[in-house]
Amino acid sequence: MRYLLFFLFIPGFLVSQQTIQGDLMHDGEERDYLLYIPANYSGNEDVPLVINFHGYQSSNVEQIAYGDFRPIADTAGFILVVPQGLQHEGNTHWNVGGWIINSPVDDVDFTAELINHLASNYSINTDRVYATGMSNGGFMSFLLACQLGDKIAAIASVTGSMTPSTFNECNPTHPTPVLQIHGDSDSVVPYNGAIWTKSVSETVEYWKNFNQCEDEAILTILDDIDVTDGSTVERYVYENMNNHAVVEHYKVLGGDHTWPGTIFDFGGTNQDINASEKIWQFFAQYDLNGKITVSQADYQTAFTWSIFPNPSQDRLYFNGVNNMAEDLKIYDQKGSLIILNKGIQTPSYLDISPLKHGMYFIELEGQVQKFIKL
């Protein structure tokens, strides 16, 4: 649940100049948040809002980089807010009950006020407000689906679940699309539950029943793109022909308490999927009234260019690069710059044969993608 601060200083991945540090008063406390405004925001039309909650003992500074939505926001055009939890008994937290004992903080009401505050200052589509988060932040997202359903269109949890109090007192106001991403080897929030947390299967079952989804899931076994990460992914989709509020679950076999696809690759991190991309693809389909017609621009993920083949032994080819004279940078897993290529020449490929086996990151046109060198 706690992440090290050093990763904020990796070259090329610093907090953008478009990130604003804001605050508002709630219940006599000054509440801080980080707000990311995408480059294409004009204020002339209402845009979606994604709320990204950090984990227990963590911070919004860590979460905005660890579970990063900024490149996706730049493409899809939504505003991102990453609020900061208050301290209770020396630990930053979101008050979701369970192991959070005797906290006086009303984080549900704070979230409602935060949404209102942002909507009064920016062009927010209040029918398209979404909640996600890591660990305690995932628990918070479920709590909002139960207690703030009039403002939250859909939620996604990464390594979180529902506390018994959230589960027993849940009172959703509308069928709520739910996405759950969880490793079955999670060493912090057990996949099979504990006295203080519901199991993933119980949580999925609750929302499947409430949303009136099909009993049987459609199972897809995803490609094992990164054979070195020690994990694979199964995707379960519970379809819904009644109100289209589906429940999806990415089960990471061998995955630990981490954010899949993060550039900060701690042990047990799956690299076959990018959780941030999957979450936005899920959110983009819904508003408060249910399924919506999604434009291509709304649905697309972080990247306007692509690389292939990936993994590769010798060459990486590029599609969709707008400026072939753009500087290309490659970093290793520690964030060290190992290649600076002054422009990509036609044919647009890069020779990676000198690199050692492993995972690397390419930065080009302000976007970062990972690749595997075989």
Structural write-up:
It is a single chain. The protein has 374 residues and is of the alpha+beta class. It has 2 domains: 5-299, 3-Layer(aba) Sandwich (Rossmann fold); 306-373, Immunoglobulin-like (Sandwich). It has 8 helices and 21 strands. The chain has helices at residues 60-66, 70-76, 107-121, 136-147, 164-168, 200-210, 275-283, 296-299, and strands at residues 19-26, 29-36, 47-53, 79-83, 87-88, 91-92, 124-134, 154-158, 178-183, 218-221, 232-238, 247-253, 286-287, 290-291, 306-308, 315-319, 327-331, 337-342, 349-351, 358-364, 367-373. The strands form 5 sheets. Strands 1-2-4-3-7-8-9-12-11-10 form a 10-stranded mixed β-sheet, with helices on both faces. It has a 4-stranded antiparallel β-sheet with strand order 18-17-20-21, with no helix packed on it. A 3-stranded antiparallel β-sheet has the order 15-16-19, with no helix packed on it. The model is unreliable at 1-17 (pLDDT under 50).
Question: How many strands appear in the DSSP assignment?
Answer: 21
What structural class is derived from the secondary structure elements? Answer: alpha+beta
Please give the order of strands in the largest beta sheet: 1-2-4-3-7-8-9-12-11-10
Mind describing the biggest β-sheet? 10 strands, mixed
Mean pLDDT: 87
